Amino acid sequence: MRLQNSNTLQAFWLGIGTLSSLALSIVTSAILSRYFNKSDYGTYRQIIYAYSTLLVIFSAGLPNVFSYFLPRYSIQQGKDIVIKITLALFVLGVIFSIALFACSKPIAMVLKNPELEKGLKIFSVIPMLLLPTLGIDGIFATYKKTFISAIYNTITRVLMFFCIVLPIILIKASYEYAIYGWIVVSFFSLFLAFYFQRLPFQGLIVEKSLLKYKDIFMYSLPIAIASIWGIAVRAADQFFISRYFGTEVFAEFSNGFIELPFVGIVTYASSNVILPIFSKMTRDKSGIHEIINLWRSTLKKSATIIYPIVIFFIFNSETIIVLLYSNAYEKSATYFQIALILNFFNIILFSPLMFSIGETKLFAKIHLIFALATWSIEYLIVLVIPSPIGIAICSVTMAILKVFVFITFLLNYFKITISYFIPLRYIFTLIIHSSISLAISKLCILILLSNFSKIESFIANFILYLILLLGTAKMFKLNYFYVLDPIMKKVVKSNRSD
User: Fold this and answer.
1) C-alpha to C-alpha distance for 395 and 257, rounded to whole angstroms
2) pLDDT at 28
3) What are the backbone dihedrals phi and psi of residue 221, each rounded to the nearest 5 degrees, phi first?
């Protein structure tokens, strides 16, 4: 059965893979929050924080290279490109592992947690195993085979879940055992990645490409630098809270200051699908209207899925946090509400457009400016009004301002108006409709079902909200199902052919 190559279907498969990853990550955090004490859980989160921060530096932007270069070469030359980039990632992974081991003590001193040194030394073997697995989604998005990356992501995340959680439950509730499990699954992930990377090129005669490492790094390094400044912004929040407010507050912050997982699923999938298309369009010198229309369509579909969910989660954040992490993390709900505000803005995927038009250096410069501003302002907050909530608010505000700066640049670059670039009327209609539906739902629950428990009220509120949202959509000239049309057509077509 031949798979349909629609962009929506490709994004759907990437979304499935990302959904499995995020869902298992949330469940893992929920379990570890209950088994670890706050000190151990805070140390575990600091290890992940240190790894994710340094990962951006040592990966050198290479995972983004697949989506840019592969569409510009024949598929016969693709395997040669994949081998080159994967080899570079492995070498960088080895350097990363050595650096993490050597710098474990300074990092522990900076974050004021002596236990962190031991944890980082144990963890240090993982980067050289995981770096070569990065970018696999970009490979399969280029060749319209994202269902394969969905299978890979699901298998590896399920293995990771069991390898991390089972030792904690069966042996000892210690962050060390969680890391040991992570090391085991990293070996499996590496070998699976090598196997899956070969699949798009089976049966083809491999040709040598003319792509040189110099060309690869000339494209990737500005992206890496931008990513470093981007991670520096996120690192600022975690650094100041970890250093000045202690591991317990850091644990509360880590569990709360997260964006809605569904947003990451949709934006990640959309970005990985449209970047290879934009790269090919710019190579072929397609018209600006064709590029913007595709971008607008992607944005509308993303907003249709995301906005109603974000609005529901904002007004039910406390219940969600308590259900996930227990009453001990009730304070995390405030951080969650603040972080969710950003989800109204970060669905605007400016990076694929910036990368496809070659403005990677400007992309890096803007991130640098915002990184420096964020660190400066958050340090002032620590000195003047020492408040972790203040740091969270500052972080979200700066992120929103950065989105507006990129929008302004793109409007000037393409010489278009904001109403053509962003479907503002459609977005405002989504927000109004979702808000009205949720307000009516919560009011009905408050009046008619006041005796329900917190979890019963939450479930009833969600069901009623969904009924109102879908039932009144036509009144607002909205169609929440049109996003799924290509998928449903594929299902119908498959059933008929069977």
Assistant:
1) 10
2) 67
3) -65, -45
Tokens of 421: 């670039």
Please give the Cα distance from 133 to 52 (Å, whole number): 15
Residue 13 near residue 270 (C-beta atoms within 8 A):
no
Q: What value does the mean pLDDT take over residues 166-177? A: 75
Identify whether the C-beta of residue 309 lies closer than 8 Å to the C-beta of residue 262.
Answer: yes
Residue 349 zone, left/alpha/beta (φ > 0; ψ -120 to 50; rest): beta
Give me the half-sphere count of Cα atoms (radius 13 Å) on the Cβ side of residue 100. Answer: 29
Tokens of 298: 């992607």
Looking at mean pLDDT, say which of 5-9, 233-237, 377-381 comes out highest: 377-381
Q: Where are the alpha helices (DSSP H) in 143-174?
A: 146-170
Whether residue 413 contacts residue 357, with contact meaning beta carbons closer than 8 Å, is answered with: yes
Q: What angle do CA 145, 6, 276 make, to 5 degrees?
A: 65
Please, are residues 67 and 279 in contact by the beta-carbon 8 Å criterion?
A: yes
Q: How far apart are CA 36 and CA 315, in angstroms?
A: 29
pTM of this prediction exceeds 0.70: no
Residues 296 and 305: beta-carbon distance below 8 Å: no
Per-residue pLDDT band at 433 (split at 50, 70, 90): very high
The amino acid sitting at 65 is V
DSSP E strands, 334-381: none
- C-beta neighbour count of 12 within 10 angstroms: 20
Q: Nearest Cα to 434, choosing from 310, 348, 349?
A: 310
Q: How far apart are CA 227 and CA 132, in angstroms?
A: 18
b/e sequence 183-209, b meaning 16+ C-beta within 10 Å: ebbbeebbebbeebbeebbeeeeeeeb
